Amino acid sequence: MRVRRVGKEALAAAVREPWADPSRRPYVEGETAWVPVRDGYPCDDDLPERRPYGGRPFQMIGDTAVVRGRRPTAEEVAAILAWRRPACVLYLAAIEGVRRLPAVETLYGEAHPVCHHENGLCYRLNPAEVMYAAGNLEERALMGRTAQEGERVADMFAGIGYFTLPMAAAGANVHAMEINPVSFGYLAENIEANGLTGRVRAECGDCRRLLAGTYDRIVMGHFDAVAFLSEALAHARGGTVIHLHALGDVADAARVSAESTGFKVRIATRKVKKYGPHIWHIVHDMVLS
Hints:
Elements: E1 2-7, H1 11-14, E2 27-29, E3 32-36, E4 45-46, E5 59-61, E6 64-67, H2 74-84, E7 88-96, E8 101-108, E9 114-118, E10 121-125, H3 137-146, E11 152-155, H4 164-169, E12 173-178, H5 181-193, E13 200-204, H6 207-210, E14 217-220, H7 229-233, E15 241-247, H8 251-260, E16 265-276, E17 279-288
Parallel strand pairs: 6-7, 11-12, 11-14, 12-13, 14-15
Antiparallel strand pairs: 1-3, 1-4, 2-3, 5-6, 7-8, 9-10, 15-17, 16-17
């Protein structure tokens, strides 16, 4: 592959140059980027073609590679290092408890805070301290498209701002609640870093005690959310939309809960991602009347 060598800080400008080949991806290592060159233009070097990655699946959170499932072998870690050259490789064994704490093992480098960019937003976190579900990418984007300018939103399990940030960026006024003090610290940092302090009221504590007033939209992004539904319904009105997350279909239980408090409800069910054998991460969109 014919390439030109540029500093990483100049990469964004370089890929817009007439000589840059848009059909190929630049290659970055450290502070240096190699940009593919179109035929007919001079180049600095001719690199061997990179083979497609066929190793153990992983996700990049900032500059950190996170591996799930069974513990990776040394050979699998070496393949990840050769392919993406992450600063750190973490093995995520599980997410534990109501505070959603990651059980991790550091396999390479040192765990550290990162800045993960997604849909024009910056999420700051340490993947060894708090969870980040890459599989919820489209769900986070959907909340940003769904939230309306000026509506009052409750994010009952806000974490580091997974749904709070895109909804606030869309113009909603978000009441963000998070029980884990570590996650809450990153939530407060992310609200400020993304310039959303005027649209988010963040509180640390049990969301059941922090809900206040009536909301136009309630996001319940926790797999045990159905157990908290009665508290959410106490702060809803006709027209409120509740986004209820669960492992598996809990629509019947959600309907019974809503109707027992005097609401009629329309429920649309979406699959977000496969969580395990025959187990799906589900979202029930509940429209109350």
